[in-house]
Amino acid sequence: MEPSPLFKGLTAYAASQGWQYIYPVWSRRAQGLSIGINLHPNHCCNWHCLYCQVPGLQRGPSPTIDGPQLMQELKDCLDWLSQHCAPQTMQDCVQDIAFAGDGEPTTSPQFIEILHSLIQLLQQRPLQDRPAHVRLITNGSQLQHAHVQHALKRLNEIGGEVWFKLDAGTDAEMLAINDTHLPLSLHLQRLQTCCTLCTTWVQTAVVSRTVEGKLVTTPSLAGYQEALLTERGAISGILLYGIARPSQQDHQGCLQTTSTVMLEHYAEELRTLGVCVRVFE
Ligand code: SF4
After folding, report:
1. How many A from CA of 57 to the centre of ligand 1?
2. What is the pTM of this model?
3. Ligand 1 test: best mutation among 23, 44, 45, most atoms within 8 Å of CB?
4. CA 53–ligand 1 middle distance (angstroms)
5. What is the DSSP letter of 61?
6. Tell me, what CATH number does 35's domain have?
7. Rounded mean pLDDT of 65-74?
8. Domain count within the chain
């Protein structure tokens, strides 16, 4: 799907305004225009995924967010869209507002405060003058914390949803792809918690890479299917995607494009679990 003129116009407007926290994205998975909220303009994340597209990604603490500035940027963005969506409504032409950005949103101590402010802002606008969805795109690593669980409940109350990262079928794959020593079993417990709190989609990057001269694709299907066995009835589905944009972390040049045939093979196998699977090349 080609980027819309609305996306191009908003991108130019965002650049002219020098926004720090709000950014437009033409999103494959959201299938259209998405408004991103970036709580990590310092490019710090607690994971270091092999395919991550964030330039200069580092490990480190979340920065202090200027909440009023972020909300002003978001308000300006929505006002600009209101003026430029016509004759369509914003619901029709903006797919979502998504917490995403250049690091894991839920590691920010201000995540819940910003979510509350966002909900207030949206509730002041007519329904048709809001984006269609509010989403949290997360690696799920903070789901054990009560304040994050509380935020997810609030997200659920406004009809929002979570996209929860699961790229592995074994501990070794979590380490190789996400560069985290978190055991897969613990990650799956957090997925389970997430599903009890809010509508949850699993999002999975199918990664092909060269290891010692051989092409390896992760997650390994058997391990991944087993990992999802318990939660298959609790998740809304799986968003399965290949790596479309160049990684900024693949310093050895080992990543390969995942073929359409491979993605479709994964999707077919996973559908045998009775799960909805959407594929994004
Ligand atoms: S969790 Fe997201 S932001 Fe963090 S390293 Fe992985 S892809 Fe990048």
Report:
1. 9
2. 0.96
3. 45
4. 8
5. P
6. 3.20.20.70
7. 98
8. 1
